[in-house]
TrEMBL record:
Residues 25-251 form the Cytochrome b/b6 N-terminal region profile domain. This is Cytochrome bc1 complex cytochrome b subunit. GO terms for molecular function: metal ion binding; oxidoreductase activity; quinol-cytochrome-c reductase activity. InterPro entries: Cyt_b/b6_N (IPR005797), Cytb/b6-like_sf (IPR027387), Di-haem_cyt_TM (IPR016174). It is found in: Cell membrane. The keyword Membrane applies. Its cofactor is heme. It comes from Phytoactinopolyspora mesophila. It catalyses: a quinol + 2 Fe(III)-[cytochrome c](out) = a quinone + 2 Fe(II)-[cytochrome c](out) + 2 H(+)(out). The keyword Membrane applies. Its main location: membrane. Keywords: Cell membrane, Electron transport, Heme, Iron, Membrane, Metal-binding, Respiratory chain, Translocase, Transmembrane, Transmembrane helix, Transport.
Length: 550
């Protein structure tokens, strides 16, 4: 007893007072809320180590930079459409009557120290934020990480993407320059195309006849307060769900649906995430300092009688502009009123359809496959060729619409009529996605065949041997057990069997027609999938390999 006491006294004498007080504070809270076990358990939570998981971090750190740069801009920006005479530092616009919003943006750009850099940091970090979210969502689609139990987190992520695009458009419209005003005019046209309530919605949003006097101040409240608040709340929910449900990981030796292989949150992941944050910050700031974006002093203030030419909206809105440009001039009469389908379909129906299909896709695929199990191991895109083909077809359609948003630019650069460009894009949007789907599916099936051959026969060594009978054979190198396991760790997909139309007593199956429809869709998904080798095939291949080696 005395020896133990002396040892503690000796250790206590060498302890720094600050460390001792910190220990007492931690002990105080631990005795009351029992937090030590909770902290230990969560600080040791495992995170996978793969580059694709960094896409979500890029979105998170760029969002942080959006917020920090936005706070700086709010000190000088004036969200008002009141008319003032510009007398600032930019000489070509001096004496021109502009809105306070436009004048304050010019002052930010030319008279506030670091203002132009902060404007460009804000703009570039927004573009990176939305691009990283889009890539992050595509990663989830390709790998199947939207499946149970992550359907709710998929909806949260999709909501974050939609809100990010919406808030980006709000911020894009605030300076009241000719480019943003033209974009608002296009939005007003889409609102007016809504049947019955379009006119009322336009008057309500703009506070009267376009452009009104209130739209900038209204967008400003949404841009800096309401939408960011919802985004931060959804981001917190996303992180909580991610923490609770644990990460997905790629298949391989030691990886299953019941564990996560990676590094602990503290200190490994926290250190790497902190360093990665500064990399993202530095990359965006270098872009903002060297690449000019949105030089609104060149566009001039918004004038309803003028339209900017040779300019396009930010990339995340460009596909809607492209859809408007190549949509045929369709219109129909409904009860004596003209319904402008050429505006309604690309401006309202198309984005609504895209968001609805994306939101429901986890349940659509579950219905097709009948798979209600929890999944924590990711799919390799090649092993689900139909899903991968559908995603690539969607990407091709999006890119073509995005290109259509600059049809006038391509026409002027290529020196061809703009109508030719539009006609080509109209045909491409119809034919391109199915062609992309078919090519992607064939590539995935080819990769599956290659993986199957590698598992059965090994890797080509380039060494040719001659048998006593004169037969030339290439010697193959057997795969390691870990590599072979990785190539065969995916599930065995088979089409759904609808069963017989009647039972053994001749009584009709009431669900047969429903099951038959599901079976047809299931065959579309899985009928061509190359199945992984069976145990018998592996044994036969191993014997053949031994004969060749011998």
């Amino acid at each position: 007893m005395s020896t133990t006491t002396r040892t503690h006294e000796k250790a206590g004498a060498s302890t720094h007072p600050a460390i001792e007080q910190a220990g007492k504070l931690v002990n105080f809270f631990d005795e009351r809320i029992r937090a030590s076990n909770w902290l230990k358990r969560n600080l040791r939570k495992v995170f996978p180590d793969h580059w694709s998981f960094l896409l979500g971090e890029i979105a998170m750190w760029s969002l942080l930079l959006v917020i920090l740069s936005g706070i700086f801009l709010t000190f000088w920006f004036k969200p008002s459409m009141a008319h003032v005479t510009y007398e600032g530092a930019y000489v070509p616009l001096r004496g021109l009557v502009v809105s306070e919003a436009y004048a304050s943006t010019l002052n930010l750009s030319f008279e506030v120290r670091g203002g132009l850099l902060m404007r460009q940091v804000h703009h570039w970090s927004t573009l990176v934020f939305i691009a990283a979210m889009a890539a992050h969502m595509l990663r989830h689609l390709f790998t199947g990480s939207f499946r149970k139990p992550r359907e709710l987190n998929w909806l949260v992520g999709l909501s974050l993407l939609v809100l990010g695009i919406t808030n980006g458009f709000f911020g894009y419209s605030l300076p009241d320059d000719l480019l943003s005003g033209t974009g608002l005019r296009i939005v007003e046209g889409g609102i007016l195309a809504v049947p019955v309530v379009g006119t009322y919605l336009s008057y309500f949003i703009f506070g009267g006849e376009f452009p009104g006097e209130d739209i900038i101040s209204r967008f400003y409240v949404f841009h800096i307060l309401l939408v960011p608040g919802v985004i931060l709340a959804l981001l917190a929910l996303h992180l909580v769900l991610l923490w609770y449900q644990k990460h997905t990981h790629w298949g391989g030796p030691g990886r299953s649906e019941k564990n996560v292989v990676g590094y602990p949150f503290f200190p490994m992941y926290m250190t790497k995430a902190g360093g990665f944050m500064f990399i993202v910050f530095g990359f965006i700031i270098v872009m903002a300092a060297t690449i000019q974006i949105n030089p609104l002093w060149l566009w001039g203030p918004y004038d309803p009688a003028s339209v900017s030419a040779g300019t396009q909206p930010d990339w995340y809105i460009g596909f809607l502009d492209g859809a408007l440009r190549i949509m045929p001039a369709w219109k129909i009469d409904v009860f004596g009123s003209e319904l402008a389908l050429s505006v309604l379909i690309p401006a309202a129906v198309l984005p609504g359809l895209i968001v609805t299909v994306l939101a429901l896709y986890p349940w659509i695929e579950r219905k097709i496959t009948g798979d209600t199990r929890e999944h924590h191991v990711l799919d390799r895109p090649r092993n689900v060729p139909v899903r991968s083909g559908l995603i690539v077809g969607f990407i091709v359609c999006y890119v073509l619409l995005w290109i259509a948003g600059g049809n006038d630019l391509f026409a002027s650069v290529l020196n061809i009529p703009v109508n030719w460009v539009s006609r080509f894009l109209q045909l491409s949007v119809i034919l391109g996605p199915p062609l992309a789907f078919w090519i992607t599916k064939r590539i995935c099936l080819g990769l599956q065949r290659r993986d199957r051959d590698r598992v059965l026969h090994g890797r080509e060594s380039g060494v040719i041997v001659v048998s006593p009978e004169g037969e030339f054979t290439e010697r193959h190198t057997a795969l390691s057990a870990a590599e072979a396991y990785t190539l065969t760790a995916h599930e065995h997909h088979v089409p759904f069997d609808p069963g017989p139309p009647t039972d053994k007593h001749g009584i009709p199956n009431p669900a047969y027609k429903k099951n038959l429809r599901r079976a047809r869709i299931s065959r579309f998904y899985f009928a061509d999938v190359i199945q992984k080798p069976t145990t018998a095939e592996l044994s036969a291949a191993h014997e053949r390999h031994q004969e060749i080696q011998g």
